Amino acid sequence: MGILEEIEQYEYHCPSCNENLHAKEGIEFLTKNSEDKMMSIFLDPGIGKYDFRFDYSHNFKQGEKVDFFCPHCEKSLQSSKHTDYVEILMVVSEAVKFEVLFSRVFGVKRTYIVMVDYVEKHGEENSLDFDELFEI
């Protein structure tokens, strides 16, 4: 169990406009698939959970890189440092915010919560280790 699983209340925000991404169905994103079709997708807000809801007429292919956008400002949420990841903010309180990275590769279940001196990892054990993402 990670340290943040003990925290019951947190929100996810866009790093560009700072709007809350929470919707009734889950954490809302606009996505674009390899066929350039845009649609909303709702991810489970639970840490380490990978359930999602979307219109099944929108196809994702195993291994494709899905583009994620803020549903409010429509800016790309692709991490500038780690291009295979989406970057959002986890807001625990007004003073406590963490960077959250999750894979934008369809089918890869990997999430990282980045704190000042600690990285919490969630997801598949056989995925790339976060330490390998940093240049030494």
Overview of this structure, please?
It is a single chain. The protein is an all-beta fold and 136 residues long. The protein has one domain (3-133). 0% of the residues lie in helices and 35% in strands. It contains no helices and ten strands. The strands form two sheets. A five-stranded antiparallel β-sheet has the order 1-7-8-9-10, with no helix packed on it. Strands 2, 3, 4, 5 and 6 form a five-stranded antiparallel β-sheet that branches. A hairpin with a 2-residue loop joins strand 2 and strand 3. The mean pLDDT is 82.
> Could you tell me how far the N terminus lies from the C terminus, measured between alpha carbons in angstroms?
28 Å
Low-confidence parts, pLDDT < 50 over ≥5 residues?
none
Give the topology string: H per helix, E per strand: EEEEEEEEEE
- How much is the average pLDDT? 82
What oligomeric state best describes the polypeptide chains here? Answer: single chain
Give the overall shape, derived from the CA principal axes: globular
Question: Which structural class is indicated by helix and strand composition?
Answer: mainly beta
Order of strands in the sheet with most strands: 1-7-8-9-10
Q: Treating each run of at least 4 consecutive H or I residues as one helix, how many helices?
A: 0
Report Rg: 14 Å
Q: Count of DSSP E strands?
A: 10
Helix share bin: under 10%
What is the beta-strand fraction?
35-45%
